[in-house]
Amino acid sequence: MKPEFLAYIWILAPFEALAVVPGPAPGLSGYRIGSVLEFENEITTSRCYPVVDKNGVIDLWVSEYHTAESRVLVRRCVEFEPRKGHDASEKRHGDSGPDWEELTVSERDGTLLASDLSLPAFQYFSNPGFCGTKVAYWIQDANRWSVRLYDLKSNSTLRTEFIREEVTETDNPNHFERPQWKDTCRLLLVEGHGPVESK
Question: Is the dihedral of CA 15, 16, 18, 23 positive or negative?
Answer without folding.
Answer: positive
